[in-house]
Every structure is written in structure tokens, then in C-alpha cells.
Amino acid sequence: MMRAMRSDAARNSEAILQAARDVVAEEGIGASMVRIAERAGVAVGTLYRHHPSKDHLVGAVVQDATRRLVDLLDAALARIETDGDVGREFETALASAAETYATDRAFKEYRAQARGAAVDLPGADQLEARGYAALDDLVAAAHRAGTLRADVGAADVLEILAAVPTSPERRATYLAVVLAGLRSAPRRDSPVGR
Question: What is the pLDDT of residues 35-46, one digit of tens each?
């Protein structure tokens, strides 16, 4: 009996997070808890048992998006360690992260309003620290490989991501221009640089 309750709770939790992602994508972080509960197919009381406030719920959605970004960076670093192409891994990770920054409205609005300080989610600080460390490691690997301009750091990459356009067409052009600008300039003694 206890096991069934736990699986129901887990299903409800995932349904609530997915509904919150969807509703916030449509309406922004001002979306109502009632609307999110309806989309999740749960009672409002169930929603509040999982998340005591809207800030808590949106924070959990943002934390989930952050976890996916950190996993993406960790996977890129793991592929680099097994003889992956550093330049390709850096650019693929940047493009994937740009997709989250551009399309995940909860992630973008929550970060823009610096609301994270208002919610104390378990593990949030450690997850953020892990993400910054992974980005630093990826940038350092790209520097060592000579595929990233030496004057570009992790903070620059975060600023680039924060400015990603939401329109898919504009985003593709933006990324193409940014990635071209981030690549190391050819050395003066190489035929390309002459």
C-alpha cells in the first residue's frame, strides 16, 4: 500500500512539474496555481502539498531545467575526456543551452527577475555550483584545445546565453554569428591568417 502511494506521489510530482512548464511557457510566471493544477489533473490541494507557493513551484521548474543543463555540460565533458572533439562539444553544448534559455520561459523570466533568492529549494546551491564548475571546465577545455578565444570566459558565455533571441530564425542567425566570433582567431603565421 505504501509503495502505491509513493508511486502516485511521484507521478503527481512529475505531472505538476510538466504542467507548470507548459502553462508558464504559455502565460509566463504569473500563471495561476489553479490553472497549473487543472493542467496536471490534480486537485489544488495536491499541488500545494508538493509546492507550498507559486515561487516554490516555479523555482522547482527552474531547478529541473538547471539540472538538465548541468547534465548536458557534464555529458559534453565526459565525451571530451574520451577523445571527443572539444570544439564540436563546446558548440553543441552552447547551442543546446541556448535552446533552454530561449524557449523555457520559466527559466528565463525567473532568472531575469532574480527570484531564486526568494525560494530555498533543497540542493539548489549545490546544483548551481556544479553548473558553474562544469561550464568553467568546458571553457578551460576549449581554451586548452585552442578552439575558443582566450579572452572569453564562463561569465561571457552566460551573458551570451542570456541574450539569445526567442525566435527560432533569429536564434539560428545569432548562434551562427556568436559561434563564429567565439572561435580562436587563426595564428598570424598560418596560411588562413595571412
Answer: 999 999 999 999
